[in-house]
Amino acid sequence: MVAAVENSLPKHVAIIMDGNGRWARQRGLPRIAGHRAGVETVKEIVRSSVEIGIEVLTLYAFSRENWKRPKEEVAVLMQLLDFFVDKEIKNLKKEGVCVKAIGRIEALPSKTLAKVRQAIRETSGNQKMILNIALNYGARTEILDAVGKILNEAKKDPSRFEKELDENLFSSYLYTAGLPDPDLLIRTSGEMRLSNFLLWQLSYAEIYITKKFWPDFKKADFMKAIREYQARERRFGGVTPPPVLSAEGGPIPPESRKTGGGVKRESV
Ligand code: FPP
User: Is residue 22 in contact with ligand 1, taking CB distance under 6 Å?
Assistant: First the structure.
């Protein structure tokens, strides 16, 4: 008998939450109504991610470029983050979610910074899932910050980098140090851009774009993205993966496999 193959679940899902403004415009509402509705989607996707066993969920909430938006819109986005922490912290704790933030968070308004730090502090012992929020985040800045830290350390201790500075060591200087790279990047609203998001870490991620605006993106849409990821063949620059083996060691014919050929990272 052929043993069932366990579908590979992405460990780390990163999301560019896009389309709040257009969602609002479609309804004749101000842009901030779109952001407000977007927070409801954040809650639904966080809950769904915990339910299905995602280990890390990274959400692009505010980029370094987003400061260019009208002052009122920026203020509302910050306020929504404050409310999110106030209202959701209890649930996040109950669900075992550990909050982290990436980006130059020190530049956030002091109230929001305090809320973010509170969420990080109060959830730091949680182990079920990491909710990693990108705030005042830019990937190029992240890479430059990493280079800056490396240069500083090298100045203090010239022997520090005698060994080759390899990819793993470099990754340990990024804001995402200690986290696995995203396996899956989801972008809503149909735009085909990376928008300065996790440029280093997304090197081998599978990309899933949906035309749905972020406030319309529901659990069923998230599951569709996960299923599509599971059906992809990840080769990491290699060739077609080796045959999937049954528990008895024999190859499982493709038509009997549960996934459409999705493979585990270790097998390529
Ligand atoms: C992009 O839509 C969305 C943002 C820049 C902000 C995302 C923020 C939230 C969903 C709320 C706060 C987040 C958390 C984690 C509580 P857009 O405004 O660029 O949409 P458009 O392209 O249609 O104008």
Answer: yes
Q: Are 84 and 39 in contact (CB under 8 A)?
A: yes
Tokens representing residue 212 in the block:
């749905």
Q: What is the CATH number of domain 6-256?
A: 3.40.1180.10
| Cα 221 to Cα 212: distance, rounded to the nearest angstrom | 9
Verify whether ligand 1 is closer than 6 Å to residue 15 (CB atom).
no
Q: 262 near 7, Cβ under 8 Å?
A: yes
Question: Mind telling me the catalytic residues?
Answer: 18, 66
3-state SS class at 106: helix
Q: Is the CB of 93 under 6 A from ligand 1?
A: no
The domain ranges of the chain are: 6-256
Q: From ligand 1's centre to the CA of 232, what distance in Å?
A: 28
pLDDT digits (tens, 9 = 90+) for 101-126: 999 999 999 999 999 999 999 999 99
Residues 210-248 pLDDT 10s = 999 999 999 999 999 999 999 998 878 787 655 555 555
Q: What distance in angstroms lies between residue 254's CA and the mean position of ligand 1's atoms?
A: 40
Q: Which residue has 């009208």 as its token pair?
A: 70
Backbone φ/ψ region at 8: left (φ over 0), alpha (ψ -120 to 50), beta: beta
Cα gap 108→187, rounded to integer Å: 24
pLDDT digits (tens, 9 = 90+) for 144-182: 999 999 999 999 998 888 878 999 999 999 999 999 999
Cα angle for residues 134, 136, 142 (degrees, 5° grid): 75
Ligand 1 near 119 CB (within 6 A): no
Q: What pTM value is reported for the model? A: 0.88
